[in-house]
Amino acid sequence: MSTLLDPPATALGPAAAAAAAVVPAVAPATAPATAPAAAPAGLADLAHEVRELVLRMGTTAHGTHVGGSLSAADLLTVLYHEVLRLRPEQPDWADRDWFVLSKGHASAALYAVLAQRGFIDRAELATYGAPGSRLAGHPLRRLPGVEFPTGSLGHGLSLASGVALGLRRQGRAGRAFALLGDGELQEGSVWEAAMNAGHHGLDNLVAVVDRNGLQISGSTEECVSLEPLGDRWRSFGWAVAEVDGHDLGALREVFAALPDTAGRPTVVLARTVKGRGVPLFEGKKKSHSVQLTPRLFQRALTGLNARRAR
């Protein structure tokens, strides 16, 4: 099939080039791109449900990555219910926004918002991690709403930057978003992608960093220091927005203002808490991956509901 994506004068990394090649070269659609609106109170209810669904998926045989899914719950809720221009009934709509879950281990939270938006049936969430299920521990392309399989950390930003470049070359209004973990930023491929996106001035690209400060082996700053994180991104030509990643109103304002700076990609550094919403897991490294027994699930759910009632 012919494509408008001829090789650029400046070479792309292999992941970014491959991503650019998957953007279909078809005539621009005339239908407006819209996202559903939700009031802040409604968003809070949706985020709470995402967390409950994550806990329920954690009761399956292999458990799930609870901590990182809970820290990203508010980010994904705002993105999927207010920001991303999508058509659940038409997942491959040409003028959609593209989303890449670079921290693929947080798949449970992604599946929860996909179910809320109608990409998949809620009943399918019960199959999480089961043999033959479309809901694997890391996202698979065969699931509606998933653009790329992810899980090997450090590649999502290259994929999203390639998509952003492809969309721009085709004159499309779509944008590309990538959600990254902060421990993932220790991968060199992230900074290769950041440098490439800054060079091309991809202001239709948004990186969101789930800055919860913990990775599987401990504190990010004890493993490999990331600070001053905002200055590192600025040095690669990015606009930087810093926000409380659990403040739904603040998140709405940041995303509504995109692009932050014309001619520059934007990174949203979202300060979060691993395990947010469940006191049993909040701020604890051990929440990275958990198989919830019936007793542990009830303790976690009780804590979640008590926090919500405050």
Structural description of this entry:
Helix content is 38%, strand content 11%. By secondary structure, the protein is α/β, with parallel strands linked by helices. The N terminus is likely disordered. The strands form 2 sheets. It has a 5-stranded parallel β-sheet with strand order 1-2-3-7-6, sandwiched between helices. A two-stranded antiparallel sheet has the order 4-5. The relative contact order is 0.17.
What labels would you give this structure?
310 residues; five-stranded parallel beta sheet; alpha/beta; 7 strands; single chain; 38% helix
Low-confidence stretches: 1-11, 25-34
Distance between the termini: 56 Å
> Taking all residues together, what is the mean pLDDT?
89
Counting DSSP H or I runs of 4 or more residues, the number of helices is 11
Structural class: alpha/beta
The SSE string, one letter per element, is HHHHEHHEHEEEHHEHEH
In this structure, how is the largest beta sheet organized?
Answer: 5 strands, parallel
Q: Kindly estimate the percentage of residues that lie in beta strands according to DSSP.
A: 5-15%
Radius of gyration: 18 Å
Brief overview:
The protein is α/β, with parallel strands linked by helices. 38% of the residues lie in helices and 11% in strands. It is globular and about 50 Å long.
Compile the SSE list and pairings.
Blueprint: H1 14-21, H2 40-57, H3 66-71, H4 73-83, E1 98-101, H5 107-117, H6 156-169, E2 176-181, H7 188-200, E3 205-211, E4 214-215, E5 218-219, H8 220-223, H9 229-235, E6 239-244, H10 248-256, E7 266-271, H11 294-309
Parallel strand pairs: 1-2, 2-3, 3-7, 6-7
Antiparallel strand pairs: 4-5
